[in-house]
């Protein structure tokens, strides 16, 4: 037993917990009994058909198997495979996120380097930051007049704040003696920014980006439930419309997996830019 | 279609539809001997015949009727055919429509059975039949349907009949000229109560209840308010009415957040299917033949793409006609149930459309016209909706009821388009309606509003 490392023991415990959880879940769901001879009334009230309810995990796995074995089917505008739906959501998240990064990082730099800009912009940031991204949705739909771009705008507006604030914080927090060293070497403002401040602030900036992508993924699901059309959020809404909890649980798991993957990407990026003093 | 009378019959009155509630029609004098045409071709023919016959008699329906009464319809038809090339006229009108300017269309719908004609027109090939490649796009809710339609993402959309009226009056949106050339469905809603309230069938016992309706500017809201007020409850004081999206209704009923709801199907039947609620009454018992959902498009769509618009309206009216035939309802149920459309179990949809359903109280009911489909947008229906908006304080001040109804429910334009396309429509656009035994006269809307004991207007 002593040969097992800490990580191995943790992994085994995780698996045990997972199986125990699934077993309890499976056992807690009463099996829907098969109906015998039905009267017309029983037939009309779904006597033979399963009722909407929390499904056992075996049913969720079955659903997952069916969906994942054919993730890219396209049966019309309202019925697409889970792969296509997730693709739409990721596309929206990344578009809005990229726009936000384009705005937030330079602006954050400016705010971080200039106390005047910081003091001037801070009130706006403080008012706009706590607004729920979804509160922008009706306004966005009305002004932009395009649900696709509105969804991207909502991602943009929710992604921008953590990146902006973290960039400003990281830039402002760069050690003064490093900047002074740059000054003694007579580096220009631009070179100082790119060669000294950016690398020094990079870990904080990437942390902001990592927080943003997490929020963006949270928001896109809600936005798509609201607007409909395509995406994983729409998928959840459509299955909820049918009270099909098996599909709802399956899509919740998918949302979790994709969110984890996005976060992991930035985790790697974070390790790349980290430095030790 | 209920609005097409046989022009060769002395007993039909072409100025009124077959379900007209006016005095002379209510006496039953003109209702017999009038089998409705059962296919779109038959409808077209009936419409052409009707137009020709009426022009022969100088649009005097009294003169036409007495003539038909004297010589008999068959004789008159034969005589007319000998002097007028009826077949050629029919063929000419059938071919009259130009090629659509644009064939790829997006049509929005909210996944409820009210949208049946709009939805089924795709799987059953009605859009295709008129040269259109239309996609029907599922929409998450009414406000989104409104915004996507305003934004031009949808060429045309499924809406609730009060929505274009509210939009025109600036209630809840900016004014954009919309046309509502066709009503989608009549009847088709119900009041559902939670199983806990099986012993509370008298609305007087509903004090303190919380009800759900799908949208503020909806027939659901106005019918629920009307219904409880007739039992002496003030809907703004004695009960709570919440706007709840239909899919949430069943879940909220189970969770005890709602005591009941007046909602579109399949969510009424779905509550029974899930064993959570029962159908208290169908809305047809409140107002037989009430309008519910509509087919609407921006005015600009009809102006800029008249042939496309014509072809689309033709597909919709044809599909509506097909849906109104009970024989087709099973086939339609199967066509619209899949994930791409309503995403509901087929037996639930079938119970709604065929009217053979379990009521949740242990009985199987047979109500073939539980939901029905008739496209004519009566102005009087618009006036009634406006009276209720006034009654409950959604609109204030003086309203020219008829002007607003006529501006939005383009019955006259609709009739012109329908006639151009070879269909016929009632010549009248106003008729009286009977709602819970009380007659509504569209000529005196203000008196009607003030005739209620409960209300704000």
Automatic annotation (TrEMBL), chain A:
Pfam families listed in its UniProt record: BPD_transp_1
List all membrane-crossing ranges.
6-25, 97-118, 124-144, 151-169, 189-208, 215-237, 249-269
GO BP term (any one): monoatomic ion transport
Q: How does it sit in the membrane?
A: Multi-pass membrane protein
**InterPro entries, per database record:** MetI-like (IPR000515), MetI-like_sf (IPR035906), NtrB (IPR005889)
ABC transmembrane type-1 domain boundaries: 86-266
Transport in keyword set: yes
Got a GO cellular component term for this one? plasma membrane
Q: What is its main location?
A: membrane
User: Which GO molecular function annotations are given, in alphabetical order?
Assistant: nitrate transmembrane transporter activity
Report the subcellular localization: Cell inner membrane; Cell membrane
The entry's keywords: Cell inner membrane, Cell membrane, Ion transport, Membrane, Transmembrane, Transmembrane helix, Transport
So what family is this one in? Belongs to the binding-protein-dependent transport system permease family.
- Give a short account of what the protein does: Probably part of an ABC transporter complex. Probably responsible for the translocation of the substrate across the membrane.
Protein name in the entry: Nitrate ABC transporter, permease protein
Supply the source organism's classification. Answer: Bacteria, Pseudomonadati, Pseudomonadota, Alphaproteobacteria, Hyphomicrobiales
């Amino acid at each position: 037993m002593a040969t097992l490392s800490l990580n191995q023991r943790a992994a085994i415990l995780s698996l045990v917990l997972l199986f125990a959880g699934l077993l309890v879940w499976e056992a807690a769901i009463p099996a829907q009994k098969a109906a015998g001879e039905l009267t017309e009334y029983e037939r009309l009230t779904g006597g033979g058909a399963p009722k909407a309810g929390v499904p056992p995990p075996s049913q969720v796995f079955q659903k997952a198997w069916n969906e994942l074995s054919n993730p890219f089917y396209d049966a019309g505008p309202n019925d697409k495979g889970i792969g296509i739906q997730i693709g739409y959501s990721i596309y929206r998240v990344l578009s809005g996120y990229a726009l936000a990064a384009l705005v937030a990082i330079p602006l954050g730099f400016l705010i971080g380097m200039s106390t005047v800009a910081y003091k001037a912009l801070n009130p706006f940031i403080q008012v706009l930051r706590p607004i729920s991204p979804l509160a922008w949705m009706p306004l966005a739909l009305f002004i932009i007049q395009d649900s696709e771009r509105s969804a991207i705008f909502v991602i943009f507006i929710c992604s921008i704040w953590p990146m902006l604030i973290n960039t400003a914080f990281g830039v402002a927090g760069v050690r003064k003696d490093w900047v002074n060293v740059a000054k003694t070497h007579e580096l220009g403002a631009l070179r100082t920014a790119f060669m000294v401040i950016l690398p020094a602030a990079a870990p904080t900036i990437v942390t902001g980006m990592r927080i943003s992508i997490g929020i963006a993924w949270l928001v896109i699901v809600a936005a798509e439930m609201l607007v409909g059309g395509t995406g994983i959020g729409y998928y959840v809404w459509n299955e909820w419309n049918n009270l099909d909890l098996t599909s709802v649980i399956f899509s919740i798991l998918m949302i979790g997996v994709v969110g984890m993957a996005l976060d992991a990407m930035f985790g790697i990026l974070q390790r790349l830019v980290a430095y030790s003093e | 279609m209920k609005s097409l009378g046989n022009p060769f019959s002395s007993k039909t009155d072409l100025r009124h539809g077959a379900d007209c509630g006016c005095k002379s029609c209510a006496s039953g004098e003109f209702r017999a001997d009038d089998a409705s045409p059962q296919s779109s071709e038959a409808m077209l023919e009936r419409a052409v015949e009707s137009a020709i016959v009426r022009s022969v008699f100088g649009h005097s329906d009294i003169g036409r009727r007495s003539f038909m009464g004297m010589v008999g319809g068959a004789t008159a038809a034969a005589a007319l055919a000998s002097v007028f090339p009826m077949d050629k006229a029919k063929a000419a009108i059938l071919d009259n429509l130009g090629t659509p300017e644009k064939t790829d269309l997006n049509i929005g719908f909210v996944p409820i059975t009210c949208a049946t004609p709009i939805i089924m027109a795709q799987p059953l090939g009605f859009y295709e039949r008129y040269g259109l490649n239309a996609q029907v796009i599922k929409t998450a809710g009414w406000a989104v349907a409104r915004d996507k339609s305003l934004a031009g993402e949808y060429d045309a959309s499924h809406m609730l009949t009060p929505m274009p009226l509210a939009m025109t009056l600036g209630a809840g949106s900016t004014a954009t000229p919309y046309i509502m050339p066709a009503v989608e469905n009549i009847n088709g809603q119900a009041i559902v109560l939670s199983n806990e309230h099986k012993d509370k069938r008298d609305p007087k016992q509903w004090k303190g209840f919380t009800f759900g309706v799908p949208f503020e500017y909806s027939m659901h809201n106005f019918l629920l308010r009307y219904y409880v007020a007739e039992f002496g409850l003030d809907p703004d004081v004695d009960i709570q009415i919440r706007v709840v999206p239909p899919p949430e209704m069943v879940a909220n009923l189970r969770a005890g957040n709602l005591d009941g709801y007046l909602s579109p199907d399949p969510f009424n039947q779905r509550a029974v299917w899930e064993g959570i609620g029962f159908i208290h009454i169908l809305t047809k018992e409140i107002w037989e033949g009430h309008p519910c959902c509509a087919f609407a498009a921006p005015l600009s769509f009809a102006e800029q793409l008249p042939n496309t618009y014509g072809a689309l309206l033709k597909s919709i009216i044809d599909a509506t006609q097909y849906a109104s035939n009970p024989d087709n309802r099973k086939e339609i149920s199967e066509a619209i149930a899949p994930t791409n459309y309503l995403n509901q179990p087929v037996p639930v949809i079938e119970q709604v459309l065929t009217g053979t359903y379990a009521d949740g109280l242990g009985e199987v009911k047979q109500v073939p016209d539980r939901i029905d489909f008739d496209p004519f947008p009566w102005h009087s229906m618009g006036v009634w909706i406006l009276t209720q908006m006034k009654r409950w304080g959604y609109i204030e001040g003086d309203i020219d009821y008829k002007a607003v109804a006529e501006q939005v429910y383009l019955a006259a334009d609709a009739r012109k388009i329908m006639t151009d396309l070879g269909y016929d429509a009632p010549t009248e656009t106003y008729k009286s309606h009977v709602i819970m035994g009380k007659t509504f006269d569209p000529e005196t809307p203000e008196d009607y509003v003030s005739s209620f004991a409960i209300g704000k207007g």
